[in-house]
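Sample 1 of the test manifest.
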Amino acid sequence: TPKPVLKVIVANVVSNCFCQPPTSARGQQQESHGDLRSLSSSLFIIILHFLYEVMAVHGPVVKIHPVVLASIVDSYERRNEGASRVIGTLLGTTDKHSVEVTNCFSVPHNESEDEVAVDMEFAKNMYELHKKVSPSEVIIGWYATGYDITEHSVLIHEYYSREAPSPIHLTVDTALQSNKMNIRAYVSSQMGVPGKTVGVMFTPLTVKYIYYDTERIGVDLLHRTRASASRTNGLTTDLAQVASAAGRVQEMLSTVLSYIEDVLSGKVMADNSVGRFLMDLVNKVPKITAEDFESMLNSNINDLLMVTYLANLTQAQIALNEKLVVL
Amino acid sequence: MGSLKDSAVSGSNPLDSPVKQIQIDGLVVLKIIKHYQEEGQGSEVVQGVLLGLVVEDRLEITNCFPFPQHTEDDVDFDEVQYQMEMMRSLRHVNIDHLHVGWYQSTYYGSFVSRALLDSQFSYQHAIEESVVLIYDPIKTAQGSLCLKAYRLTPKLMEICKEKDFSPETLKKACVGYEHMLEEVPIVIKNSHLINVLLLDLQEKSMVADKHELLNLSSSNHLEKSLQLLMDRVDGMSQEIVKYNSYCRNLSKQQQQKQQYLQRRQQENTQRQSRGEPPLPEEDINKMFKPPQAPPRMDTLLIAGQVNNYCQNIKAFTSQNLGKLFMAEALQGHSS
């Protein structure tokens, strides 16, 4: 794999550039130092950047479903007194280039300054139970709330590497240290000179959010609880839903219209790509002659009206039947 | 939970039950959606257990876990054991482990069945406030979440307890198909931290809104709904035929009884006039055994199901009519 090779290269470059050249005149030394230093630092930066890109591409992309994050937040809210963070197992499926996290469960653990204890029996049991429902999900890693990766994390990660090949470690910052809930994923890799002290480095991975269609709709509904003060929201009736969807489209249309006005009056520079999208949009409204459209519309409306009539008739029929029996 | 049993269930107000409102956590909604999406394709139903607690007259559902499907190699699978283990484990991580109901997915709204009735009855018998959540994935895929909560009415509970489904008891209790299940309003609640999470997700994920709700095509859905409706109406007509034949048999038998009694009377008077002892009274009931009254529960269920289908169809058509009128307005401007 290119990863360790690149790391060795970096180590070599760094050691070569930053160690003093053995014999030179003093003035030359300083100059060469300066040159070399700036050269080496820029080289170092370039290589680091390259490494980050390469590593981010070589590591699997982590795709998370929102149900996992909601579960993590919920277990954080229910943590025991005195526990500063919660950990748990991540379940999902792996692919050649990506890892899809679809489920998780929390595992009780105790953490103090110098030791950490995880209830592994519990983790195994829960995994067995979950497997009965979805046999295709496997352990792909573990999560922890909190911002940093501590030494205890390394130990826990080691345990999980016994359960799964190259486990993913997910951190969710529920304490909102940077005013945001940072969700990061890491994969561990060995670091250091082989043969001597070996350490573990957590390399970051790209995180994407993935939804099923129905999940998307569910999450949209959940978004609306943000608006109300009591954080609650009822489920709307049918026509009201169509009305709200139409309202949303109307909002979008008004935004686009205001943008167009700005461009026309010269306030904003015209952007060709946006213009092309606008043309697509206008052309999407199908051009149908008035009579054809009338007939299509009428036949559709007639279908729906007939079905409504049938449904009402059926309901009246069974109500009658009910009354007759009771007589 | 115990104190709520004191609240009177008079039965006059249809929603005069211990549970007036259901409050669901966002997490439960997401879990149910995920469960159906992954494990239940086609017309199979997926089921699971709801956990939560009861607060005043609200039922709060805070978590849930799914039940595995009943597949081939499940001879030695113990549902009760699975449930017990799951609840014990969840208690370790401070999740509410009180059983408050169960959920089920449905196919085009066909969930009013004997199985559901039995399950819900056993739940409600054990835990008074339990509900069944029906999740309709097909309607949800059409644009907005369709989740409904039902309970059995107290009258129906009484009847199920007696297990007596003959027409007379049903007539006495005045239970019609509309009074079988009562719907409880649902409210979704999220904690502050989850709201923060949702904000974060909205920023990061650029998944475009599909606007499924404004989709104009309706024939597929209508076809399937109507087909299911027709099946049920067929079943209904069979039940009606059965009941009618029972009524006819009963009345015929009454007639025969009357005739027999009359003949007996005549013979007795003849014998008396001749001076012979009258014939002994025979047990009429043993001679004319009354026909078996058909159980009315199935009819009730079918009627309830047909009603449900009709309601769904009407809601669907009203939505589509609205959309068609909007499309007309759109065309009207350009033509």
